[in-house]
Design brief:
This protein has helices spanning about 10, 15-20, 35-55, 70-85, 120-125, 145-155, 180-185, 210-220, 225-230, 310-325, 345-355, 365-375, 400-405, 430-440, and strands spanning about 25-30, 60-65, 90-95, 100-105, 110-115, 130-135, 165-170, 195-200, 250, 260-270, 275-285, 290-295, 330-340, 360, 380-385. It is of the alpha/beta class. The chain has 2 domains: about 10-210, P-loop containing nucleotide triphosphate hydrolases (Rossmann fold), CATH 3.40.50.300; about 245-440, 2-Layer Sandwich (Nucleotidyltransferase, domain 5), CATH 3.30.420.280. The strands form 2 sheets. An 8-stranded mixed beta sheet has the order 3-4-5-2-6-7-1-8, with helices on both faces. Helix 3 (about 35-55) crosses helix 4 (about 70-85). The radius of gyration is 25 Å and the shape is elongated. The relative contact order is 0.12. Pfam families: Terminase_3, Terminase_3C. This is Phage terminase large subunit. InterPro entries: P-loop_NTPase, Phage_terminase_lsu, Terminase_L_C, Terminase_L_N, Viral_DNA_packaging_terminase.
Length: about 450
């Protein structure tokens, strides 16, 4: 094995010394964005496994995300980063099917799993386990999901290890009644648990760059509560109003110094009972997101409701008219997103025009709302007060988009719960906005 030359004191902020030195089996690291808690865990896990490798022993570590398709761009790369810091990446082989990082001489391995494939996870007899890491632990449904797997891993403890050490890392949800906030709070003071809080303010080694600080300051100035939640890791609570309408910025016309480079469409559907809303969004070279136009059809009060075949034609005409306007000539359509519960219109549209709409991978309502909050707090969302005209019925007006968001509220009877609900009335543009932000989070530079 190559000689390890990493200087941990230059890689781990002093604030995390207790995490590095504790011998407690259960370690909960909670904190805001850019607190580097995940980096500390990754470095510590590599350090732990190297102690066995130096002895010629085979030792294994399990890393778990709630959803398997998030592994590659998060924990998998993070462990590779940590191995690179130790100068040892070339001594490990990295595979993605399945996700494993294996020490070539000893077979010591980092195993990566999604909790969504629990049966596969439960049945794998890995053996020689020294540690388990649950990254983005707030994504899990409840503490029972941890309990289901923890016992399995404890039974597979390495014979030279005193215990299997467990790590949880997450950004606290803004709802103080979220199950994970209540669970971690209940573990404070427990003998076997270390509960550690951190934020970007704990950085003494200069990991938070000037550019990061500028972004943080911008969000702090735009939406102070969101800043406290996102960067300080504080569960600031939920007001009755879902959004701060001051962050919806009106435009009389498109900016002359910032062209639109990509178009996105997002649709919430209703048919005979409720409205169908389709939003046309533009992304600019400077990262602005603009609601360009809205198609909105409500069957309320109409004797004959539109059939899926008629809605299909309406939506196709709306996309054709908006995507070809000279104001954003050359901008290509990147994605069409639709409510995942909608099948009739999606199938009808494919039959009529051979074009697929992508069903949104729905999350909890509060989590989809949080993507919108992230965009708003960055000060990058705008809407055209008077959309450039297409001449189509049910289009060319963004007023309904603003009015629905003004009225959009949480049900106050559910605020003090783990799963707060919104009032499901006149919320169709709100839904299409959430689907757009959720489905295109990476393109929009939102938290993923």
């Amino acid at each position: 094995m190559s000689k390890v030359t990493v200087n941990i004191q230059k890689e781990v902020n002093p604030h995390f010394k207790s995490v590095w030195t504790t011998n407690k089996p259960y370690n909960i690291l909670r904190g805001g964005r850019n607190s580097f808690k995940s980096s500390v865990i990754a470095l510590l896990l590599v350090y732990m496994i190297l102690r066995y490798i130096k002895k010629g022993e085979k030792a294994n570590i399990v890393v778990i995300r709630k959803v398997a398709n998030t592994i590659r761009d998060s924990v998998y790369l993070k462990i590779q980063w940590a191995l690179t810091k130790f100068g040892l990446l070339n001594e490990f082989s990295c595979t993605v099917s399945p996700f494993k990082i294996t020490h070539k001489p000893t077979g010591s391995t980092f195993y990566f799993y999604g909790q969504d494939d629990f049966q596969k996870l439960k049945s794998n007899d890995i053996g020689n386990i020294i540690a388990v890491w649950y990254e983005e632990a707030a994504e899990f449904n409840d503490a029972e999901e941890f309990d289901q797997t923890n016992t399995t891993f404890m039974r597979q403890k390495h014979q030279l290890a005193d215990m299997v050490r467990f790590f949880w890392s997450y950004n606290p949800p803004r709802n103080p009644y979220s199950w994970i906030n209540e669970w971690s709070d209940s573990m404070v003071g427990e003998d076997n648990y270390l509960v550690h809080d951190s934020s970007y303010k704990n950085d003494e080694l200069g990991f938070v760059t000037e550019q990061m600080l500028q972004d943080i300051e911008r969000i702090k100035n735009n939406d102070y509560d969101y800043y406290r939640y996102l960067y300080l890791g504080e569960p600031v609570g939920l007001g009755t109003n879902v959004y701060n309408m001051n962050l919806f910025k009106p435009l009389d016309e498109l900016p002359s110094d910032d062209r639109i480079i990509a178009l996105y469409y997002s649709m919430d559907t209703g048919h005979s009972v409720s409205a169908t809303s389709c939003g046309c969004y533009g992304l600019t070279t400077k990262g602005k997101v603009i609601r360009l136009n809205t198609y909105y059809y409500s069957p309320a009060g109409q004797v004959r409701k539109k059939a899926p075949s008629e809605l299909s034609k309406d939506i196709h005409d709306f996309i054709k008219a908006t995507s070809t306007q000279d104001h954003w000539k050359g901008a290509r359509i990147q994605k069409r997103t639709i409510d995942s519960a909608e099948a009739a219109l999606r199938n009808q549209y494919y039959k009529d025009y051979g074009q697929h709409w992508d069903p949104v991978a729905k999350k909890k309502k509060i989590d989809m709302i949080d993507y919108v909050h992230d965009l708003l707090a960055q000060g990058r969302f705008y809407y055209l007060k008077n959309p450039y005209r297409t001449g189509l019925r049910y289009a060319d007006n963004n007023d309904i988009f603003i009015e629905e968001h003004k009225k959009y509220q949480f049900d106050e009877n559910t605020l003090n719960s783990d799963d707060p609900k919104v009032i499901k009335e006149d919320d169709h543009t709100c839904d299409d906005f959430q689907y757009f932000c959720t489905a295109n989070a990476r393109d929009l530079r939102l938290k993923v």
